[in-house]
Design brief:
It is built from four helices and no strands. The chain is mainly alpha-helical.
Length: 74
């Protein structure tokens, strides 16, 4: 059986897309603006974003533009 594992950031990206679609946030809003919406999960999400070289000042549109979330093999 071939199970595909979805990267945790895919779920975050879907949630952010939903927030944008609902007009709760705008694509031009900075990533830090969603921190309070993720509550206790924010610390983990923020760390993941930093590992993918995002800044909390980047617009949400850059997060939404990612097509594939992959970890680099060391």
């Amino acid at each position: 059986m071939n199970h595909q594992v979805i990267h945790p950031m895919v779920k975050v990206q879907r949630q952010v897309r939903s927030l944008v679609d609902s007009e709760i946030v705008k694509p031009g809003d900075r990533i830090w603006k969603i921190a309070f919406l993720f509550g206790d999960d924010w610390t983990r999400i923020k760390q993941e974003l930093l590992e993918f070289e995002f800044s909390m000042q980047d617009p949400l549109s850059e997060l939404l533009a990612v097509e594939v979330w992959e970890e680099e093999d060391e």
